[in-house]
Write a structure and sequence with these properties.
By secondary structure, this protein is of the alpha/beta class. About 40% of the residues lie in helices and about 15% in strands. It is built from 17 helices and 17 strands. The strands form four sheets. Strands 4-2-1-5-6-9-10 form a seven-stranded parallel β-sheet, with helices on both faces. Helix 11 links the parallel strand 13 and strand 14. The mean pLDDT is about 95. It binds uridine-5'-diphosphate. Uridine-5'-diphosphate (UDP) binds next to helix 2, helix 12 and helix 13.
């Protein structure tokens, strides 16, 4: 046993993340779980700006800066992907060679599936490769079908029926499917995730077996995949790792202590509003949401990133200061885990969806783009842990609708049903990551397989 432990501790895994918050978070958390199993783990992040780190004793975090040749560092531009690929290709072999020279050769590169070309580098260096998908299996199955030509763009029928998935109305498909003109490069990156789907040594998904059982069974008919999520710090779920309060690597700095404010509020009385790290609401939508929050007469904590602040109606913050707190960024998990929070208005990014579900917070889905509409479908109709806010003929969620949804969750009959389902899914998520749970077992299997392969 001791010998085996020694072999495990010498097995070095390099985790390479895509430089966006929604990608860094699950990968860093997965890295910590691998380290908890005894592996030596380094997280490598290619970044365009500063990374605010909370030191983690279990893994090493290394950064390499690169400068995208675009007028901004927004990662949806084609040149961003190209510059990232150039930078990784130029730096990764040297980085790996240095690990060998330092006596700690890399056995496996776990890379974000959006960077599928990392596998070519791994193969050239004789290192094993594992692709980590940061979106749901359901969403990835849709991209898989598109890539295989089994679903054609533009989707002309009002709804589609795909194996392992519920019937999806067109608007419930990922936005890139119907909005191909604006982001053609993104769609090609999403397809490329499957370019080496059968060859790569391991495939990981940030989900858990029972959450996406049917989609997973379908994907497992293509090849073996491992569900290892939800990748949420242990203080909140599973309790395996000690002192693991936050993901630990933020692209934005949390500049406000909202926990003190939450402490003064009653259980379940606060609506938490967050649209993640990238979604940008139109000014009109921002105004409707703002006045909807005010009309609901409920306490609210709203994350409005610095770049979005100018869209807030003038005087809104002053006018609602008795009921609301607007912050630029917060530790979202700490907020969601707070007993005062009774409802989460979310853009339905996959991490936020998993966080809301795993912490048992009923959600109001306001998807904006990319995979969020599909996640919203699952929140409202499959897991039934929230409602989807209806969009009017102008494409907006009106202030009246915001008010209605909040009341439905906080005081309405439907809220009770949703809270019951939320409690159920919270327990199931915990079971999956706890010792011996399905996701925990998948990680154990990977460690065993990797050690066998490397020795
Ligand atoms: N997040 C955070 N503080 C905030 C807002 C978001 O820590 O104020 C985190 C959130 O917990 C999640 C991530 O940022 O882990 C956002 O990822 P998601 O997939 O939900 O959305 P994206 O930013 O990719 O659109």
């Amino acid at each position: 046993m001791a010998d085996n432990q020694e072999i495990v501790s010498k097995t070095h895994v390099l985790v390479v993340s895509f430089p966006a918050q929604g990608h860094i978070n699950p990968l860093i958390q997965f890295a910590k779980r691998l380290a908890f199993k005894g592996l030596k783990v380094t997280l490598l992040v290619f970044i365009t700006n500063e990374l605010h780190q909370i030191p983690s004793s279990s893994i090493r975090v290394e950064t390499i800066s690169f400068t995208p040749q675009t007028d901004n560092s927004n990662c949806i531009h084609g040149s961003f992907f190209k510059n990232l690929q150039d930078s990784v290709s130029a730096n990764l072999p040297e980085f790996i060679a240095k690990q060998t020279k330092d006596g700690s050769p890399v056995s496996c590169i776990v890379y974000d599936s959006a960077m599928s070309w990392v596998l070519d580098i791994a193969r050239e260096l004789g290192v094993a490769g594992a692709s980590f998908f940061t979106q749901s299996i359901a969403v990835c199955a849709i991209y898989y079908h598109l890539n295989e030509g089994k679903l054609k763009i533009p989707v002309e029928q009002p709804s589609v029926s795909l194996p392992g998935l519920p019937e999806l109305d067109t608007y419930e498909l990922p936005s890139f499917v119907y909005n191909t003109k604006d982001y053609p490069q993104v769609l090609s990156v999403l397809y490329s995730q499957f370019s080496n789907f059968r060859e790569v040594d391991w495939i990981f998904f940030n989900t858990f077996n029972i959450l996406e059982e049917e989609a997973m069974n379908w994907m497992r008919s293509l090849r073996e995949i491992k569900a290892i999520g939800p990748t949420i710090p242990s203080v909140y779920i599973g309790k395996q790792l000690e002192d693991d309060k936050d993901y630990g690597c933020n692209l934005l700095k949390s500049n406000n202590d909202c926990i003190g404010w939450l402490n003064s509020k009653e259980t379940g009385s606060v609506v938490f509003v967050s649209f993640g790290s990238a979604a940008a609401l139109g000014e009109e939508q921002m105004t409707e949401l703002a006045w909807g929050l005010k009309r609901s007469n409920t306490y609210f904590l709203w994350v409005v990133r610095e770049t979005e602040e100018k869209k807030l109606p003038s005087n809104f913050v002053e006018e609602t200061s008795e009921k609301g707190l607007v912050v630029q960024w917060c530790l979202q998990l700490e907020v969601l885990a707070h007993k005062a929070v009774g409802c989460f208005i979310t853009h339905c990014g996959w991490n936020s969806t998993l966080e809301g579900l795993s912490l048992g917070v009923p959600m109001i889905a306001m998807p904006q783009w990319t995979d969020q509409s599909t996640n919203a479908k699952f929140i409202a109709d499959v897991w039934k842990v929230g409602v989807r806010a209806k969009v009017d003929e102008k494409g907006l969620v009106s202030k009246e609708e915001v008010e209605l949804c909040i009341k439905e969750i906080i005081v309405g009959e439907k809220g009770n049903e949703i809270r019951k389902n939320s409690d159920k899914w919270k327990k199931l998520a915990e079971e999956a990551v706890d010792t011996g749970g399905s996701s925990d077992k998948s990680i154990d299997e990977f460690v065993k397989e990797l050690v066998n392969k490397s020795s």
